[in-house]
Amino acid sequence: MNKYLDLSLEVKKAMESKMPIVALESTIITHGMPYPENLETAEEVEDIIRKEGAIPATIAIIEGRIKIGLNKEELKFLAESKNVLKAGRKDLPVVVAKELSAGTTVSATMFCAYLSGIKIFVTGGIGGVHRGGERTFDISADLQELAKTDVAVVCAGAKAILDLRLTLEYLETYGVPVIGFRTEEFPAFYTRESGLKVDYVANSVEEVARIIKTKWDLGLHGGILIANPIPEEHALDKDYINKIINDAIKEAEELDIKGKEVTPFLLNKISSLTGKKSLMANIELVKNNARLGAKIAIELNKLLEY
Ligand code: PSU
Ligand code: MN
Description:
Helices cover about 50% and strands about 15% of the residues. It is an alpha/beta fold. The chain has one domain: 3-Layer(aba) Sandwich (Indigoidine synthase fold), CATH 3.40.1790. Strands 1, 2, 3, 4, 5, 6, 7, 8, 9, 10 and 11 form an 11-stranded mixed β-sheet that branches. Strand 5, helix 5 (about 90-95) and strand 6 (about 100-105) form a beta-alpha-beta unit.
């Protein structure tokens, strides 16, 4: 194991007994949701994965150590702390060398999952090409990570704070298959529709696991995106949320928010503009992804020969 990684006891045991493991990101805890909902959700999501029969590994950096699996105190520390960083791929060496603490984004979590041998990763929504990205070059490092790191990512699509069409074009260019789980449409996080098609539909967990295994068996490096729409009963009204997203983007432009502040700013703004509606939807879709991710990890585990 890489010398900068610390495995939790639970994860260590799971690896020894070859149990299916599901990685979870921590920027959603440190920058994506307010306290205490962030902590409650992180714990509930872990429990859902355990109940399904897999082992959760929430990934974060604490005082320079890359944690693969967090204990209760570590989760609480991240959820409460106001000054932990947001670490993507580019931040990893600095945060580790300077012995700082950070929530890891999809890009950093994918990479750390890969370092520790975890193949399935559950998140809410991935980062992507921001609106106007062709001008600003604001393209999340998550997409490049999907292009090169062998980890399958389960998400509810990507928020309409992004340009979803350009995001899908980018993934296509870099050879990342986008698989809709029982949907033909690429979901838009709070809503089940975006008006954009996924590449392929998978109708069962076994099918998803077979696609993942086949990609890597072929020596095709990089990730796979599994798009799992928010359950109907928790989805928000499309026109309602899009109006709010537009308002949030306008404010970000007026305030000249840049770089890695953009996504947390927009998430926070949307949350406050919707009361807790967007937060509740966010929590439900992550839980839904956790259930699917655990099932995929279990199926993939059966297919893999140790
Ligand atoms: N999208 C969400 N919620 C989130 C994020 C994205 O709906 O919490 C977080 C993820 O950690 C993602 C990161 O990897 O934001 C992307 O940030 P950026 O756009 O700066 O790459
Ligand atoms: Mn960005």
